[in-house]
Amino acid sequence: MAAAGAVGQLHTRIQFADSRPSGTDTKNVDPEGATFLGWIADGKTMEEMADLEGVKYNSVHSKIETLRKRFEVHTIAHLTAQAIRRETDLRISSPAPWEYSREC
After folding, report:
1. Separation between Cα atoms, residue 86 and residue 84, nearest integer Å
2. Which of 19, 32, 80, 88 has its CA 20 to 30 Å from the CA of residue 48?
3. pTM of this prediction exceeds 0.70
4. What is the largest CA-CA distance in the chain?
5. Do 80 and 40 meet the contact criterion of CB atoms below 8 Å apart?
6. Per-residue pLDDT tens for 47-102?
7. Of 57, 59, 54, 72, nearest to 33 (Cα)?
8. Distance between CA atoms of residues 33 and 98, nearest Å
């Protein structure tokens, strides 16, 4: 019985814990990276992103690789999911630190 009570208390604490990123979080996305993540979310390839943004393929690839290392993920899909979650959390706590505009 005591174990069940402890699990219940732990679940309650986790449920009400502040899940927003702290101000010291170093996993910020710059505007260029946010733009590329937006294009990825729209299903664009790195070649298409390079054409749309007027940059070289290697610039896009390098930025995506840097973001994958910073977020400690192995796939572009996971990177995009992490960025979306983070953006949502930051919008709840404060105005979005990175906003990007792009034409569809």
Report:
1. 5
2. 88
3. no
4. 63
5. yes
6. 999 999 999 999 999 999 999 998 899 998 898 888 777 765 544 444 444 454 45
7. 59
8. 10
